[in-house]
TrEMBL record:
<keyword id="KW-0812">Transmembrane</keyword>
<feature type="transmembrane region" description="Helical">
    <location>
        <begin position="240"/>
        <end position="261"/>
    </location>
</feature>
<protein>
    <recommendedName>
        <fullName>Probable membrane transporter protein</fullName>
    </recommendedName>
</protein>
<comment type="similarity">
    <text>Belongs to the 4-toluene sulfonate uptake permease (TSUP) (TC 2.A.102) family.</text>
</comment>
<feature type="transmembrane region" description="Helical">
    <location>
        <begin position="12"/>
        <end position="33"/>
    </location>
</feature>
<feature type="transmembrane region" description="Helical">
    <location>
        <begin position="208"/>
        <end position="228"/>
    </location>
</feature>
<dbReference type="Pfam" id="PF01925">
    <property type="entry name" value="TauE"/>
</dbReference>
<keyword id="KW-1133">Transmembrane helix</keyword>
<keyword id="KW-0472">Membrane</keyword>
<feature type="transmembrane region" description="Helical">
    <location>
        <begin position="102"/>
        <end position="124"/>
    </location>
</feature>
<feature type="transmembrane region" description="Helical">
    <location>
        <begin position="131"/>
        <end position="150"/>
    </location>
</feature>
<feature type="transmembrane region" description="Helical">
    <location>
        <begin position="170"/>
        <end position="196"/>
    </location>
</feature>
<feature type="transmembrane region" description="Helical">
    <location>
        <begin position="298"/>
        <end position="316"/>
    </location>
</feature>
<feature type="transmembrane region" description="Helical">
    <location>
        <begin position="39"/>
        <end position="66"/>
    </location>
</feature>
<keyword id="KW-1003">Cell membrane</keyword>
<dbReference type="GO" id="GO:0005886">
    <property type="term" value="C:plasma membrane"/>
</dbReference>
<dbReference type="InterPro" id="IPR002781">
    <property type="entry name" value="TM_pro_TauE-like"/>
</dbReference>
């Protein structure tokens, strides 16, 4: 059952009480009604965050930045803020389930600080990139990943990460830093690149890799939100109030997505996410069209899809070779 864990029930109840107190002190019903689109967006966004290796920002960032013309920085910050609740809630649900091998997630103790280092580097070095390039890169990232994810038979089987030698660790560090830099631009992305590495190079079980990517993105969202609030000091009262509008939605929907992941064959849901991503990229190119937007979105889509496809297909070929060898033996 969804609420079978006493730890999760305690977390959920405590966070709902905190939301009631914060909403009463900082927000209002008229503001919520005027900004209904924030919780509406996150019904799908948070569900995606719990169900797949894509964070809720994979829906929130393009919808706010492209459809509603909200500043790229505010869309990124909203993604971080909302994932700090939703993906943390999903993480606690995952870790508190009966029979969970918590020790399998020990690598997160060093994944998180390395990825956060990438986030800080991205905040310092990448923020001057033109907005349309960031939008094109992100929309290409989520579309091509979703396409490769759905169409490739990339299932691994290892339940524990087995990194051997300096090369494996160097590759993980590079991917984690790159993922943190993605999060500094989009508010998400660290989960996608980490997942791809775990299921290809390390042949990890798809669901375990999804869980680990969710937990890393949850931690980066909290730390990134803290960085923006305490270090940069750029989080406004308006942003806090929009966050509070969507808070209870993601608190429930993200762990509910993880619950559905354990119960159902989710291939049709994933195909729906692909369709949504195709629509987002198409809308981006048709709204105020330019050759620069088309070139960046199409070029990056081709490159990223090739990377994801060959990476995810690699494990499928390895698995098939092992199956044939086992049958021959």
């Amino acid at each position: 059952m969804f609420f079978e864990s006493r730890i999760f029930r305690g977390w959920y109840g405590g966070m709902m009480l905190l939301w009631v107190a914060l909403f009463a002190a900082l927000n209002s019903i008229p503001f919520l009604l005027d900004h209904w689109h924030y919780p509406a967006i996150m019904v799908m966004g948070a569900f995606v965050a719990g169900l797949t290796p894509e964070g809720g920002g994979a829906v929130a960032f393009p919808v706010l930045s492209v459809f509603f013309d909200i500043k790229r920085e505010m869309a990124r910050d909203f993604s971080l803020m909302i994932q700090s609740v939703g993906m943390t809630s999903a993480s606690i649900w995952i870790l508190s389930r009966k029979g969970r091998n918590v020790a399998a997630y020990a690598p997160l103790l060093w994944f998180v600080p390395v990825s956060f280092l990438g986030f800080v580097l991205g905040m310092l070095l990448l923020q001057a990139i033109p907005v349309f390039i960031i939008q094109a890169l992100f929309l290409s990232l989520i579309l091509t990943f979703a396409l490769a994810y759905v169409s490739s038979k990339h299932r691994g089987e290892r339940l524990v990460l087995k990194a051997k030698g300096p090369l494996d660790h160097a590759m993980l560090v590079g991917v984690l830093v790159a993922g943190g830099m993605c999060a500094s631009l989009f508010g998400t992305g660290a989960d996608i690149v980490l997942y791809t590495m775990l299921v290809t190079r390390f042949r990890m079980d798809e669901k375990v890799a999804t869980h680990m990517s969710i937990m890393v993105m949850a931690a980066i969202s909290i730390l990134g939100y803290g960085y923006r609030f305490f270090w940069d000091g750029d989080i406004t009262d308006y942003q806090v109030r929009t966050w509070l509008c969507a808070y209870p939605v993601v608190l429930f929907m993200a762990p509910f997505g993880s619950y559905i992941l354990h119960k159902l064959n989710v291939e049709w849901m994933l195909r729906g996410i692909v369709a949504l991503n195709i629509f987002q990229l198409g809308y981006f190119n048709l709204k105020n069209p330019s050759w620069e937007k088309l070139a960046w979105s199409s070029g990056s889509s081709v490159v990223l899809f090739a990377i994801f496809w060959f990476s995810l297909a690699h494990i499928a070929r390895q698995t098939e070779r092992q199956r044939i060898a086992a049958e021959a033996g």
